[in-house]
Structure formats: structure tokens, C-alpha cells
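Retry 2 of 3 after timeout on previous attempt. Resubmitting C-alpha cells to design endpoint.
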């Protein structure tokens, strides 16, 4: 397999519902790519990040990925969610074109550390810059390149907030990009298990952080922000494949 379009795939699953952000509740198949240029302290998808899981990632052609999406969806076109890892480090342009030709739509989640021309072909670009609690430092020039590369594609900000410092940072980022809708998402503290066993998260902790975040936004009268939990984590815990 030596095609330039070879995609490193961690998992393909669904249909399920999109559990986060602008498309919450929308039925979707997930394609999670393997490999990430970040190492967020609280990443809930380490099986698609850490190199110790590399031998579980599979090189696939766009045609093979599309065949799996079609099998899972029974051929009915739906939203495909590209996540990872950082899906922007994979050559996904050909897959997006192939799928859109069959009526599928494509949303992609990325931290905004790698810009791609094909972002403009997406049906939605979800930019999720990483706050201080992640331990990562955003390169704002590259982030701006990502926003610019998306051009006509609808783009939104989805920012994870664990604490007051993250919250203030999110306000600042929103101020830099007044044209992008902002989704605030409370962080979940439980790291995922290496296998498929459900790891029920600390629901009280999630509820409390969600309430705190709502209170914070209302207190600031930040009425253009939307505050959403990770619905799939509330329903199934930090489990893989849902
Ligand atoms: C696993 S990441 C993969 C895509 C890309 N690398 C990114 O971070 O945007 C998908 C989404 O999950 C969020 N996320 C990761 N770990 C989380 C956690 N512990 N709590 C809440 N959201 C989390 C990320 O911020 C991102 O918005
Ligand atoms: N249902 C569901 N919604 C999600 N939204 C973002 C996810 C991700 O891990 O990227 C995710 C996920 O893994 N499952
Ligand atoms: S950028 Fe995304 S996938 Fe990469 S470590 Fe951070 S949360 Fe995980
Ligand atoms: Mg997730």
C-alpha cells in the first residue's frame, strides 16, 4: 500500500450521534485517524495519539475507508466525522471528495496546528485550540492559516474548559475570532481505558463543571457562547466506539 492518499486509521465506528459541539445529536459515522502532533495532558483519545498504540492503526486507501463508512451506514449518506489524533496530518482530501460524490457530508475536528487546502471542501471545520490546562501552546499564526484555509466552509470554535484560567483564555480566543460561533465544553477528567470496557466517568464531577461553566457564562452575560457537555460521555462514559 503506497498510495500518497493512504490514511492512517485508528478506528471507524457508528453510526452514533455526534456528542459534541455544533452538530450535537446529528447521526454520524466516525473516522478516527492515528497520530497527533500534540500531547494534551487530559486527552480522552490516547489510543489514537500515543505511539504505543501505533500497531493498532491501519493504513487504508480512501476507497477502503469509504467502503467501511458505506457498510456501517447501509449506503445511506450521512454526516462523517473526521477526528483523531489530529486528522489534519492525514491526506483526507481524496476521501472527502469521494464521499461527497456519494452524498455524504464531512465534518473535521482539529486543534488548528496544521492547515490544509482541503479544509475549504469540508461541510464543517471544528477548530479546537487547546487551553492552558492542556499543557500545549498554540501557534496563533498557524491557527490563523487554518481559519483562512477553511474559506467558504462553515467553521466554529470548540474550546474545552477545565478551570477559570481556561475560561478567561476562551474569552480571549473568542474575542480574536468574532465571526466564529463559540462552543464551550467542560473537560472530563477520566482518561480512557486501553480496551473497550466502559469506564463510567465521574458524573457528579462533569455535572458540577457544566453548572459552573453555565454560571460563569451567564455571570459575564456572554450570550453568544453555547455551553454543551460531551453528550456521549454522559451517556456511555469515556468508552471507545460510541
Ligand atoms: C480527541 S480530540 C481529536 C481531534 C483534535 N486532535 C482536537 O483535539 O481537536 C476531539 C475533541 O475532544 C476534545 N477532548 C479531548 N479530551 C477531552 C477531555 N478530557 N474532556 C473534554 N474534551 C476533550 C478535544 O478538545 C477535541 O475538541
Ligand atoms: N459520539 C461521539 N461524539 C464525539 N464528538 C467528538 C468525538 C471525538 O472523540 O472526537 C466523539 C466521539 O468519540 N463520540
Ligand atoms: S490535540 Fe486532540 S487528539 Fe491530540 S492530544 Fe490533544 S485532545 Fe488528544
Ligand atoms: Mg472524544
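Retry 2 succeeded. Sequence:
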Amino acid at each position: 500500500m503506497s498510495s500518497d492518499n493512504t490514511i492512517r486509521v485508528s478506528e471507524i465506528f457508528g453510526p452514533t450521534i455526534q456528542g459534541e459541539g455544533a452538530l450535537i445529536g446529528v447521526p454520524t459515522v466516525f473516522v478516527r485517524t492515528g497520530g497527533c502532533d500534540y500531547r494534551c495532558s487530559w486527552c480522552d483519545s490516547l489510543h489514537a495519539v500515543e505511539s504505543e498504540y501505533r500497531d493498532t492503526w491501519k493504513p487504508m486507501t480512501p476507497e477502503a475507508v469509504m467502503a467501511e463508512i458505506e457498510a456501517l451506514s447501509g449506503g445511506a449518506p450521512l454526516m462523517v466525522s473526521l477526528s483523531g489524533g489530529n486528522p489534519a496530518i492525514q491526506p483526507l482530501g481524496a476521501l472527502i471528495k469521494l464521499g461527497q460524490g456519494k452524498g455524504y457530508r464531512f465534518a473535521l475536528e482539529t486543534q488548528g496546528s496544521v492547515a490544509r487546502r482541503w479544509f475549504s471542501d469540508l461541510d464543517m471545520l471544528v477548530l479546537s485550540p487547546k487551553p492552558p490546562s492542556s499543557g500545549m501552546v498554540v501557534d496563533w499564526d498557524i491557527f490563523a492559516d487554518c481559519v483562512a484555509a477553511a474559506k467558504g466552509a462553515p467553521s466554529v470554535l470548540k474550546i474545552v474548559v477545565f478551570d477559570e484560567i481556561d475560561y478567561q483564555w476562551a474569552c480571549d480566543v473568542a474575542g480574536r475570532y468574532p465571526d466564529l460561533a463559540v462552543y464551550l465544553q467542560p473537560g472530563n477528567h477520566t482518561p480512557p481505558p486501553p480496551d473497550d470496557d466502559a469506564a463510567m466517568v465521574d458524573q457528579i464531577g462533569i455535572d458540577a463543571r457544566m453548572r459552573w461553566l453555565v454560571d460563569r457564562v451567564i455571570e459575564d452575560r456572554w450570550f453568544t457562547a453555547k455551553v454543551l457537555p460531551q453528550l456521549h460521555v454522559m451517556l456511555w462514559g469515556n468508552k471507545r466506539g460510541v
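Attempt log closed. Helices lie at 62-73, 93-101, 140-150, 164-176, 203-219, 231-236.
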